[in-house]
Design brief:
This protein is of the alpha/beta class and 458 residues long. It is built from 15 helices and 24 strands. It folds into 3 domains: 241 residues, Ribonuclease Z/Hydroxyacylglutathione hydrolase-like (Metallo-beta-lactamase, Chain A, 4-Layer Sandwich); 92 residues, 3-Layer(aba) Sandwich (Oxidized Rhodanese, domain 1); 99 residues, 3-Layer(aba) Sandwich (Oxidized Rhodanese, domain 1). It is 28% helix and 23% strand. The chain has a 6-stranded mixed sheet with strand order 1-2-3-4-5-6. A 6-stranded mixed sheet has the order 7-8-9-10-11-12. A hairpin with a 4-residue loop joins β1 and β2. α3 packs across α5 and α9 packs across α10. The two termini are 37 Å apart.
Length: 458
């Protein structure tokens, strides 16, 4: 068996290639599919199947384009309401890829149509099964039961289905079974995913809070609680994945803009440079989501799908990368771009301070805002901060005084920069970004607080 995991850090997304003999299958592909085509060509294999474990909500998949370019058959669970031809599989169905047997389990819970795939290498019967769990079972967590893919069911009903899938179908498998999920740490498809990209079922039985022995009622309560807010783009991506996304090559390309055009742009001006460069000088009314972090996820969270976007970058290569990564979350309305070196208008700045400098400057006359998620904030935060999660900041900044100096902090400095740009656009006059974030604040032993004890899943 030829096996490869592709991990896309900005979406915390894992996809997989399985090859045997002259055939191959791709599981949960990302939108840009060239890497799978290259892998198949290098191995002298033909992609026979493109398999989706469920209708993904957090990214737009490339299954339709990959199938068109290879002639592969698209596979979904039998409950998936696809708008394109697909083979729908049910419990116990099997397919072969060369000398690899793929057996399917219906595992609803995260979504009604969710499936899990068991891959057995017939050339090596003693090898452990490889289990592709999609968003049913993560490393350290399980799929959240409250997303749009579960429309028509309550979170509690879906959590009950998830319990039956896990405890009735997955946990009875051998402990040495290898677990390969569709996401890792940072994904909003769960609440406490591990940074590990794979594990064994035995290890998960020992360490995963949701797999310890418990009643169905207790599981439903634990899994349904404390889930992060659902980004607005999730339902749109889930719908697009069932309808089929257009090929990337067919998306309209952005045009190069001049300074006047960017100043008068009717939409979101998105600066994709690093936080320090954005702070040192940026176009007024732009927002900063740097390419160096979870760019696509935060862009999808903060920019409504369908909004015209203009990209500000240092190089055309950065523009092209941003265009691709935006398309991965369904933002297909990039109308133009400007290279910052070509801009001849007035620039704005945002002061950057270290955590030690911030600690000396914080006093009752300033505001100190932590834009991390509530669970992160509860575990430990800088003393004197108020928590307004980044995804809620555009709706809740009116709880702050725009005339007061406002310091913004996150975990490491990435989200806080986006927070400062939101506040600047809202008319706040004195904004300061705290570089290094809460992580550095705690490392330096600066005054901190804990507002709640960590739950089992934290």
């Amino acid at each position: 068996m030829i096996f490869k995991q592709y991990y896309l850090g900005c979406l915390s997304h894992a996809s997989y290639y399985i090859g045997s003999g002259e055939e191959a299958a791709v599981i949960d592909p990302q939108r840009d599919v060239q890497q799978y085509l290259d892998e198949a060509e290098a191995n002298g294999q033909r992609i026979k199947y493109v398999i989706e474990t469920h209708s993904h909500a957090d990214f737009v998949s490339g299954h339709l384009e990959l199938a068109k370019k290879t002639g592969a058959q698209i596979i979904f669970g039998q409950r998936a309401n696809t708008k394109f031809p697909a083979l729908k599989v049910k419990d116990g169905d099997t397919l072969k890829v060369g000398n690899v047997e793929l057996r399917f389990l219906e595992t609803p819970g995260h979504t009604p149509e969710g499936i899990t795939i068991l891959a057995k290498d017939l050339d090596d019967p003693s090898a452990p099964l490889k289990m592709f769990t999609g968003d049913t079972l993560f490393i350290g967590d399980v799929g959240r039961p409250d997303l749009v893919g579960s429309k028509g069911f309550t979170a509690e009903e879906m959590a009950g289905m998830l319990y039956d899938s896990l405890y009735g179908k997955i946990l009875p498998l051998p402990d040495e079974t290898e677990v390969y999920p569709a996401h890792g740490a940072g994904s909003l498809c769960g609440k406490s995913l591990s940074k590990d990209k794979w594990s064994t079922l035995g290890e998960q039985k020992r360490t995963n809070y949701a797999l310890r022995p418990m009643s169905k009622e207790e599981f439903i309560k634990i899994v349904s609680a404390d889930q992060p807010e659902v980004p607005a783009y999730f339902p749109i991506s889930a719908s697009q994945n069932l309808e089929g996304a257009p090929e990337l090559d067919n998306l309209p390309q952005p045009e190069r803009l001049d300074s006047t055009a960017i100043q008068n742009f009717d939409g979101v001006v998105l600066d994709v440079r690093s936080s320090d460069k954005y702070g040192a000088g940026h176009i007024p009314n732009s927002i900063n989501i740097g390419l160096g972090g979870q760019f696509a996820s935060w862009a999808g969270t903060m920019i409504p799908v369908g909004t015209p976007v203009a990209i500000v970058a240092e190089t055309k290569e950065q523009v092209d990368e941003a265009f691709m990564r935006l398309a991965r979350v369904g933002i297909e309305t990039v109308r133009g771009y400007l290279l910052i070196g070509d801009y001849n208008g007035q620039l704005k700045t945002i002061r950057q301070v270290t955590v030690d400098e911030a600690a000396k400057e914080i006093n009752p006359d300033v505001q100190f805002v932590d834009v991390r998620r509530p669970a992160e904030y509860a575990n430990a935060h800088a003393a004197g901060t108020v928590n307004i999660p980044l995804d809620r900041l555009p709706r809740e900044f009116d709880s702050l005084n725009p005339e007061k100096p406002t310091y913004v902090i996150c975990e490491g400095g990435y989200r806080s920069t986006l927070g400062t740009s939101i506040l600047e656009n809202a008319g706040f006059r004195h904004i300061i970004n705290v570089t290094g974030g809460t992580k550095k604040w705690l490392e330096n032993g600066l005054p901190s607080e804990v507002s709640a004890t960590s739950c089992t899943a934290a």
